Amino acid sequence: MRGLPGWRRVAVPVAAVAVIIAISYALAELSESDKAANWAQLASVALGVLALIPPVVGTWRERRPGRTSTPDQVDRAEQALRVLVRAQWREEILIRELDEPSPLPVRWRISGLDVMDQDDRVDRPRFLRSWFGLGRVRFDGRTDRMPEMAGRFRKLARRRLVILGEPGMGKTTLAVLLLRELLEDPQPGDPVPVLLSMSGWDPEAESVHTWLVRRLRENYSALRAPDFGPDAARGLVAHRRILPVLDGLDELPDKVQPRVITALNAAPTTEAVILTCRTREYLTAVSLPGGDVLAGGAVIEPRPVKNADVIAYVRNRLAPRQAASWTGLLSAIKNDPDGPLADALSTPLALWLLGKVYIETHADPAPLCDTARFPTAEAVTEHLLDNLVQATFAATPPDHDPADPHDHDHPFRPHRAWDPEDARRWLSFVAHHMSVTGTRDFRWWHLHRAVSRRWSTLVGGVTVGLTVGLTVGLTSDAIVALRSPHEGSLWNALLFGLAGGPVGGLVGGLTGGFILERLKGSTLEPAYANLRLGGHLQRLAGQLTLGLVLVLPVGMIAAYALWRVAGISSEAGDFIFFGLVVGTVGGLTLGLNRWVTTPLTSDRPQAPLITLRRDLQLVYGRSLTFGLALGLAFGIAGTLVNGFSGLLRGVEAGIAFGIAGGVVFTLTFGFTGASSIYFVAVSMLRLRGRTPRRLMSLLEDAHRMGLLRQAGPVYQFRHARLQDRLAQLHQRYGPAGNAPASPHDTREVERS
């Protein structure tokens, strides 16, 4: 857990448990009700105390120093990672339409800027350059001839490449296509190319080695599976099994960019690397004091897209009925090659936007030729960006045919129908949230950062506390009234449960909320339940032992409080028996729950929606298991030590407490899981009109339509410029969610 010294990790939970017990004792001493009522009230608080154990223990990330994966485990991890990356980018290339029959031929060549290392350090020795000093490093290529570019990359002395270009010129597209080519035709000894966004990285705070290991764990959680050893990601980086494809150096602060290049030059684990950056930012980074070029790296830039290629590309995408309405635009490009329209459409990004906003929607492109309305290339591009989301959702019907119940598998259509304006408003908020947090990755388990922490803690504590208090208070009072020799009717017990249960519940709920607020620095990550015993018996034994060590003392403390305060029995041996039963069952259940909680293995998909569903199944499955097991132990042990004879009565009381315990742990332990916190955040944001109720469904549909891309369990906007533009649009939405006063609104795009 980050942000807390080691002693605080123990002191905070221990102090919290002590405070709850002290408050419970005071409530019981001050109350004028009989022992049965005190017992009921303390039962609700005791369950609340035990419910805090899983989230507190869950924040402890035990890391045994010095443990590394074996070479065989690293080999298996490399093979699994190669399969995952290949499957991921095959789908993304299809969704992003990078494999269309007539792709746009973007030409690349060695940069003419003074931003490259000496030729003999970049390229392998050649006869003319070695003997006569003639010729330069050659790296010519085209995006429609990727095998040639991959072969040229492999011939570089250190396999280091810097891809420069202005916004929208296809830097990331080239990196993705090169990554795919290297994966599809691997050579012996080739490392696994992995594309990572550099957003948020500072080499002074986190070394290259540490950052790469962390990002591999985040984006490919299968590497943390037990099959690959304790630290497969670190082994892959240390043994140079990874080819980092680092996207977006220009997205880092100006002062950080030179540090990244310097760190890459000094890092022994990044011999091969591919780096993308805007031309101006890279030139500035290498020119600043302390800056340097990427050692041994070839630097390439795109040539301007030819007007003839633009015209051919557009014509190839038009339907026969559209040809007549596009004559004017194509003539404008041909007759005014230096005009704003031709200038804007000289980038791959603008051409893709043109296809989405006008070609696929069958809209009339004539307004784009109006130089008074669009005097610059930037105005044309901004207009296309502003209308992209609405046009895409309007032009792409959902993949649903009521007459065919099996028609749900079209890969590029949404599953649901969304209002285009609402979709743009919601995606604008997502883009704004990502920009505020300084990242290009949307991690659904980090959405709670968009909600006020204090309000979410207060609302969650009150809601959970009241529900838990009522549930446990009513259940325990009913059992006491029906089964104990104490005087009092069932009606009186239920009344006290209604009055006193929420008191103990609020104490536990608000205290638990406070603890979780203090432990907010810990990162909850999605996981799933793995019940396979093969090869995991040692880990199971270790987790069961840890659970007993952690929970047995708490069970004894709770039993002592019930014995001294509520007077459930006059015999000291009874409270010891009670504590041992509850503590043992609770410890074993906790250990079992920790053992089944496993990162996604190599045979599991890692798409965001799938990780959310599996984490939700895990969270509520283990919550109900923990609650029912502990409730049964609590009820049966309490019944036996209170003098009731017969197993039947103990089982009856135990089932009642088990149901209450299941509710308690579902509403406490359950709400500390990654998926539960996400749903709480979505609910609060939904009330404010920021997101839809099914946010992940919206993002999945946006991904299917090509607006987003997947990187393991996270979403990214297809282009950084799209995210930035949507984040700006979010600022113009009013509190009521009214449409922004955009100068280039979608409603101005007329259908032909």
Question: How would you describe this structure to a colleague?
Answer:
The protein is α/β, with parallel strands linked by helices and 752 residues long. 56% of the residues lie in helices and 6% in strands. The protein is built from 27 helices and 11 strands. The strands form 3 sheets. A 7-stranded mixed sheet has the order 2-1-7-3-6-5-4. α19 (453-483) runs antiparallel to α20 and α23 packs antiparallel against α24 (647-667). The chain is globular and about 100 Å long.
Q: Could you write a compact summary of the structure shown?
A:
By secondary structure, the chain is an alpha/beta fold.
Question: What is the topology?
Answer:
Blueprint: H1 6-30, H2 35-51, H3 53-58, H4 71-95, E1 107-110, H5 119-122, H6 127-132, E2 141-142, H7 146-154, E3 160-165, H8 171-184, E4 192-197, H9 208-219, H10 232-238, E5 242-247, H11 256-266, E6 273-278, H12 279-287, E7 297-302, H13 307-317, H14 327-335, H15 340-344, H16 348-359, H17 377-395, H18 420-436, H19 453-483, H20 490-518, E8 528-529, H21 537-566, H22 572-596, E9 597-598, H23 608-641, H24 647-667, H25 674-687, H26 695-704, E10 708-711, E11 714-717, H27 720-731
Parallel strand pairs: 3-6, 3-7, 4-5, 5-6
Antiparallel strand pairs: 1-2, 1-7, 8-9, 10-11
Helix pairs in contact: 1-2, 1-20, 1-21, 2-19, 2-20, 2-21, 4-8, 4-10, 7-8, 9-10, 16-17, 17-18, 18-27, 19-20, 19-24, 21-22, 22-23, 23-24
